[in-house]
Amino acid sequence: MNISLTETAEFLKNHDNYYILTHQSPDGDTMGSGFGLCYALRQIGKNANVLCSDEFPKRYHFMYEGYEPQKFSPETIVAVDVADKKLLGTKLIQYGDYVNLCIDHHVSNLHYAERLLVNPDAAAACEVIYQVLGEMGIEFTKQIAECLYTGIATDTGCFKYGNTTQLCHIITAHLMDCGIRMEQINREMFDTKSKARLKVEQHINSAMEYYLDDKCAMVAVTLDTMKKTGLALEEFEGIAGMSVQAEGVQVGVVIREKDKGKFKVSMRSASDIDVSAICQKFGGGGHVKAAGCTLEGPLDDVKLRLLSGIAPAMGIDLWLA
Amino acid sequence: MNISLTETAEFLKNHDNYYILTHQSPDGDTMGSGFGLCYALRQIGKNANVLCSDEFPKRYHFMYEGYEPQKFSPETIVAVDVADKKLLGTKLIQYGDYVNLCIDHHVSNLHYAERLLVNPDAAAACEVIYQVLGEMGIEFTKQIAECLYTGIATDTGCFKYGNTTQLCHIITAHLMDCGIRMEQINREMFDTKSKARLKVEQHINSAMEYYLDDKCAMVAVTLDTMKKTGLALEEFEGIAGMSVQAEGVQVGVVIREKDKGKFKVSMRSASDIDVSAICQKFGGGGHVKAAGCTLEGPLDDVKLRLLSGIAPAMGIDLWLA
């Protein structure tokens, strides 16, 4: 059942003993939503804990500085930024059928919760949580403000992506008044990389190949390369975006060998070209600007097949080129 | 003479035939201020041109799409984002002593203009221009809004740096209502790099060395390397920031050989360490988080001297290490 902002605020004020569930592989938005809501509920005298199937990442240490789980029997289950109960992960899936309230921003939310407050226009669940806390009359402490700011900033690539809303900016202007350590948080979120990540990026940049009048950038990482160079698989998140960073590139492709001779292809568009349509030809799919497919065969064949799919979208006839 | 926002608006409404001067090596803020103001003045029937000692960079093409210089005799000279008349550059220095109005945000402004509107708390001159145009009752067209947005976004690293003000966010929320191509502008400003730049970044990353328990990152680029690798000198802007991007690094150093055996050192702090104090020991200076100096000698000596200056600030005794 979809409920309104006011109904959500009423529900939260009228219940107690909260387990707040975040999604597995937690990001800044689910963490910020979870801890922001938890501190707000504690502020009005409720018992509340934040739960996650994975450990809280050190990256978000400032959100749970001084946080201690409370001892109580859970009565109310709230999920934040969790579009599908499957995303609760191994430890929390036990609560999947008993979620009393879900607060989210994914248009794809599967309505698994008893009550759902979802705003698909919001860039981040933290944007929705901010509105709920406002409706509840919560005081935006520095701690709450830092949680919400981080969710908004990370989900928008620091206000860079197309999902950034006017409300993101307006909320941030308010949160800056609450003493948030904006500069430090931004540095940790956006300007600091692990050495393992730097190594992966370096490899991707140096192995990048340019085709089709330099309008297509393509890079392949084989199992062999992974083994030889010691690149860390967990550091590949979001790496596909690197394929379209060079000036003039319209379509970028990252090919990663998952099993021997089986390649996972991530395609990005930095132009009007619909990469989802291209990937569909190869049995894949996705969005207009970000899509993928899986191809088998020798790597050179895979590259050639991809190029023959991409070239027509650029108005290039491969066989005349 | 310092004048107020209202006085500035009155001045602009009561004069005509404007030459708007931008600074040399134009960035997004001086360009956005110049064109934003120019379109605003034309909107209320004035003659106005934007001038620069350098060519308008292609990077900011969307600011001057459809712009044509008008023919008229200049009567009023306005400089935007120009802290020092010397920054007008070779072509525009002729106007240096005749600037009727300067609109700026640099605390270091040298008061060379007849009238000065300066707000040192503003992150960008475009933030000040926005307020002036508001005071003048200008309609914020898409074109004007894109100019001002770009100045604010580029001067704050897309709302990432510590200089970002609440007003930056509030203004942006408004400008988003004026039809700006936010996503496209952000992509061009922040996610697109020339191949020459990618090559420089790649070299810097691969040549980075770590010292002092990995708390100090240091990279040197010699004249020899520049020659061998064909790195483009003009692509080194802002490269010093890369020295502090690895997790755990407190002080980063980029050493560039300017003349044979003469090294320009750029030092950055990602901690409480005051790199300006360290650089002062070597006859240099700067800010707490960004400073520099020049050292001579064989490169290995230069590195060792720098490390011996940095180590004590980290509480590390080099000779015991």
Q: Can you give a write-up of this model?
A:
2 copies of one chain form a homodimer. In chain A, strand 3, helix 3 (89-92) and strand 4 (101-104) form a beta-alpha-beta unit. Chain A is built from 11 helices and 11 strands. In chain A, 36% of the residues lie in helices and 17% in strands. The radius of gyration of chain A is 22 Å and the shape is elongated. In chain A, the strands form 2 sheets. A 6-stranded mixed sheet of chain A has the order 6-7-8-9-11-10, with helices on both faces. Chain A has a 5-stranded parallel sheet with strand order 2-1-3-4-5, with helices on one face. Chain A starts with a helix and ends in an 11-residue tail after the last helix. The longest helix of chain A has 16 residues, at 28-43. Chain A has helices at residues 5-14, 28-43, 89-92, 125-136, 142-155, 166-175, 182-190, 195-207, 223-229, 275-281, 299-310, and strands at 18-21, 48-51, 76-80, 101-104, 115-118, 209-211, 216-221, 251-259, 262-269, 285-286, 290-296. In chain A, helix 1 (5-14) packs across helix 4 (125-136) and helix 5 packs parallel to helix 7. Chain A folds into 2 domains: 5-190, inorganic pyrophosphatase (n-terminal core) (Alpha-Beta Complex), CATH 3.90.1640.10; 195-313, Diaminopimelate Epimerase, Chain A, domain 1 (Roll). Chain A is an alpha/beta fold and 321 residues long. Chains A and B meet through helix 6, helix 7 and helix 8 of A and helix 6, helix 7 and helix 8 of B.
